[in-house]
Design a protein that fits this description.
The chain has two helices and eleven strands, in the order E-E-E-H-E-E-H-E-E-E-E-E-E. The protein is mainly beta. The chain has one domain. The chain has a nine-stranded mixed β-sheet with strand order 2-4-5-1-7-6-3-10-11, covered by helices on one side. Strand 8 and strand 9 form a beta hairpin. It is globular. The model has no long low-confidence stretch (mean pLDDT 87).
Length: 175
């Protein structure tokens, strides 16, 4: 397969406080669907992308641009799309890199991955925060089939999978 030179990562959030302050805003959508069809190559919930950027940077990728845009869902609800461009041998935009790291390290995501010959598009939604408003790690109780608590204390939220890109291909591994 040909080397992928550009990766688009789009995070969809309904809570405006999640949008990093160092991302530029563009005018609201005009009704066009930007991600493409809804036939992802891979899809999984509760995905950790903490190490994704680190992995990409080792392969020569840089976060080169980002923007936030208010959109309306098919159900008429408002949300914000935060879109990042990550390019092989690109010129890094440090504000965009910081924003990407914040979104990837503080949350798990529902991930959908799309790939064609020219690029990869990663669509992240269904945010599961890992840190509360005070900066503390969020913990949850393990539960049995009857939803009764198991154990003596709650535990940190665990991902179902981890996303990485290896040799130009998307890999979504269960953990």
């Amino acid at each position: 397969m040909e080397e992928v030179l550009r990766i688009f990562a789009q995070f969809s959030v309904s809570n405006l406080s999640v949008v990093p302050g160092n991302v530029r805003w563009i005018k609201p959508e005009d009704g066009k669907k930007l991600v493409g069809d809804d036939n992802p190559v891979l899809a999984m919930e509760n995905v950790s992308i903490k190490k994704l950027l680190e992995t990409l940077e080792k392969e020569g990728y840089k976060v080169t641009d980002s923007y936030a845009q208010r959109r309306t869902s098919e159900k008429g609800m408002f949300y914000t799309a935060i879109r990042f461009t990550i390019e092989k041998n690109g010129k890094e935009d440090s504000n965009s890199r910081k924003a990407f790291l914040r979104l990837s390290k503080e949350n798990f995501w529902k991930a959908k991955c799309y790939q064609n010959e020219d690029n990869i598009t990663l669509a992240f939604s269904g945010r599961i925060p890992l840190i509360d408003g005070n900066g503390n790690e969020i913990k949850v109780w393990d539960r049995d089939a009857n939803k009764n608590k198991i154990g003596s204390e709650p535990k940190p939220i665990r991902p179902f999978g981890k996303l990485s890109i290896v040799d130009g291909s998307i890999e979504l591994k269960e953990v």
